[in-house]
User: Which sequence fits this backbone?
């Protein structure tokens, strides 16, 4: 069980950069559910989508896995012989709790897809041939100058017919669209119990390390990385998930 997210509920003299540490790991399930519109639908659907594209005797990567929600979903839904999931994150606190959740899942459900965790920087990680790669709200934390190289590496590792599932918060080139969807996102947070102080302090902490792109930017980058086709399959307010296909 996770705790209720109250990390930004009191006024802070100085708001530092957001860090995926023990405090965040402890409240992360509550934080993400109350902060990202449609998150439960995205997680459940990642498992369903992976189940359609996973190939026999292949690897599946969950890159930037945090607490492993997407990994758990894929373990439930992928029923393809010889597949296994590798869940990767560079934050030790997040990966430790991810491992605990996976062990608990093993204890409750039989015949799940095998999964292992690895602590690594995904920019430096060597990828083995794979049929599905998940970047679920991960690319937005990668330095913009490094994003194309990461997608190139993923494309090269994917087997023919493989896919990348990419979920991101979106930026919008049209100012009115950006302002309107941002306003609705804050309303979503308030409806989930966050105060204006919490919203403002969380925004200050994360805006320096999470740098979103427009959907058009994502699509153009995927083309440059060699993906044959990509499309959005889900959007709620300013949050989106896409599928990119390898020929």
Assistant:
């Amino acid at each position: 069980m996770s705790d209720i997210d109250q990390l930004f509920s009191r006024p802070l003299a100085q708001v530092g950069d957001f860090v995926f540490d023990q405090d965040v790991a402890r409240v992360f399930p509550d934080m993400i559910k109350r902060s990202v519109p449609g998150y439960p639908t995205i997680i459940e659907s990642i498992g369903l989508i992976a189940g359609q594209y996973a190939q026999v005797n292949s690897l599946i990567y969950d890159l930037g896995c945090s607490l492993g929600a997407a990994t758990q979903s894929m373990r439930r839904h992928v029923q393809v012989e010889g597949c296994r999931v590798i869940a990767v994150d560079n934050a030790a606190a997040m990966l430790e709790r991810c491992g605990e959740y996976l062990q608990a899942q093993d204890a409750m459900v039989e015949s799940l897809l095998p999964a292992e965790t690895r602590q690594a920087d995904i920019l430096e990680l060597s990828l083995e041939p794979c049929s599905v790669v998940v970047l679920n709200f991960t690319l937005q934390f990668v330095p913009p100058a490094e994003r194309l190289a990461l997608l190139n590496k993923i494309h090269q590792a994917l087997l023919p017919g493989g896919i990348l599932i990419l979920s991101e918060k979106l930026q919008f080139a049209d100012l009115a669209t950006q302002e309107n969807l941002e306003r609705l996102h804050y309303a979503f947070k308030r409806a989930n119990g966050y105060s204006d102080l919490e919203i403002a302090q969380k925004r200050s902490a994360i805006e320096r390390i999470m740098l979103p792109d427009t959907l058009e930017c994502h699509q153009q980058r995927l083309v440059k990385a060699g993906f044959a086709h990509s499309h959005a399959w889900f959007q709620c307010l300013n949050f989106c998930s896409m599928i990119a296909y390898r020929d």
Residues 61 and 133 are 5 Å apart (CA to CA). The helical segments are 22-35, 39-53, 69-77, 92-108, 144-157, 175-191, 196-206, 215-224. The first helix runs from residue 22 to 35.
